[in-house]
Design goal:
The protein is of the alpha+beta class. It has a domain at about 80-205. Helix content is about 40%, strand content about 15%. It is built from 6 helices and 8 strands. It has helices spanning about 40-50, 55-65, 80-100, 115-130, 170-175, 195-205; strands at about 5-10, 10-15, 30-35, 65, 135, 140-145, 155, 160-165. A 4-stranded antiparallel sheet has the order 5-6-7-8. The termini are close together. Residues about 1-5 and about 10-25 have low confidence and may be disordered.
Length: about 210
């Protein structure tokens, strides 16, 4: 896609991810309670939502959980199912919005089908092959694969995807400690999501 602006569901034309509100919710001191979730709770959460938490995310959630919800925080046990479902669906829905309204279609996806129904089917196929994203705060996500510690944190707003931490620990320093987020793709290559950063950079370079 070329051009200087694009459309978002809430804000209208924007130039890039930061203008799109990618930096929201605004960073503020975390509101954690300790200890966190029990192992039984996290086991039930993973079963309920068909997820597998990487080891470092599991340890993080065992140590702390939100003291209250809102301002980007949610609770895996007490937040409404609809809210969690919306967070899980956000990455796909954002990409689909850009396909519909901003002309996004990666060359890797093959020829763009004529009908929106066929376009959605193809995009769903693409997402089935991509690592699933696990929400952690606001629009920040950790990939479920590989199932190991040290996965990067992505900030996702439609197809505007940024690395917001090389690791979960690095993300905390950025989100709540005021460190600057890294530029470019993370050091650890994550299928699809690292490419999304490069595609986004290429798009912004043409605008």
């Amino acid at each position: 896609m070329t051009g200087a602006s694009r459309t978002t569901p809430a804000t209208g034309p924007v130039r890039d991810a930061r203008e799109a509100g990618l930096m929201d919710p605004q960073s503020r001191p975390p509101k954690w309670s300790e200890p966190g979730y029990s192992r039984d709770e996290l086991m039930r959460v993973q079963e309920k939502w068909d997820l597998r938490f990487p080891p470092d995310l599991l340890e993080f959630l065992l140590r702390r959980r939100p003291f209250c919800v809102g301002d980007g925080f949610f609770d895996w046990v007490h937040s409404p199912d609809q809210e969690i479902q919306q967070l899980l669906a956000w990455p796909f829905n954002g990409f689909w919005f850009d396909v519909q309204h901003n002309g996004v279609w990666w060359s890797d996806w093959g020829s763009k089908p004529e009908s929106q129904a066929q376009q959605m089917t193809r995009l769903k196929d693409v997402f089935r092959e991509a690592p699933r994203l696990i929400p952690i705060y606001g629009r920040r996500y950790v990939p479920a694969e590989p199932l190991e510690s040290g996965n990067p944190v992505f900030s996702v707003y439609q197809t505007d995807v940024l690395c917001f931490g090389q690791t979960l620990e690095h993300w905390q320093d950025i989100e709540f400690g005021g460190s600057a987020p890294p530029r470019g793709a993370p050091g650890k290559e994550i299928p699809f999501w690292s490419q999304a950063i490069r595609e986004n950079e290429a798009r912004l370079g043409k605008s």
